Amino acid sequence: MNLKKTILLPKYQKVFEHLGENIKLARKRRKLTTEQVSERAGINRTTLYRIEKGDPAVAIGSYFNVFRVLNLEDDFKKLAVDDEFGRKLQDLDLL
Fold first, then answer.
1. CA-to-CA distance for 26 and 22, rounded, in angstroms?
2. At what angle do helices 60-69 and 45-53 cross, to 10 degrees?
3. pTM of the predicted protein model
4. Per-residue pLDDT tens over the stretch 58-79
5. Which PROSITE patterns does this chain map to (predicted)?
6. 2 and 50 Cβ atoms separated by less than 8 Å
């Protein structure tokens, strides 16, 4: 399999790292092991480790499955829910 490395600017990589840390903390608060979460999410432990480190190359579906296992899918649904900038652009077209 030919994997292409995802390249992000450092400030955006920090966003992923923060997300990964939040996921890790949520798992620990629930007293779940990496084995339990990875099994329930249908991913291997290495993938969960990469998610908790904030790896942007992990498939978004894997992130969602971890959110689901942690009962955080409503948080996931909030991503890009209010496209304020896009709405302003749309409104400009209406003039």
1. 6
2. 100
3. 0.83
4. 999 999 999 999 999 999 999 8
5. HTH_CROC1 (PS50943)
6. no
